[in-house]
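Hello everyone,

My group is preparing for a crystallization screen and wants a predicted model to guide construct design. The compound we'll soak is zinc ion. Before spending weeks at the bench, it would help to have a computed complex in hand. I've included the protein sequence and the ligand's SMILES below. Output in structure-token form would be ideal because that's what our pipeline reads.
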Amino acid sequence: MLMTTMENKDEMLRPVHCKHCGELEYYGEMRWLSGKCVCRDCYKKEYELQYGKLYEWDDLDGPRPNVN
Ligand SMILES: [Zn+2]
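Reply:
Good plan to model first. Here are the tokens for the complex, ready for your pipeline.
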């Protein structure tokens, strides 16, 4: 394991697996919803379930981490 000091920016771009759907998401893009830390896709789904309406903003769009 490399012992390098990670810059905060790099940490934000670190891919992590969403615990709910298993998809990769950037650490810095994980959202908190109802005490859960979820990826943007899950956040959108949860939001739509909870409020019974479509999530109408585009701030959850954008590139996802690539699976290598
Ligand atoms: Zn997810």
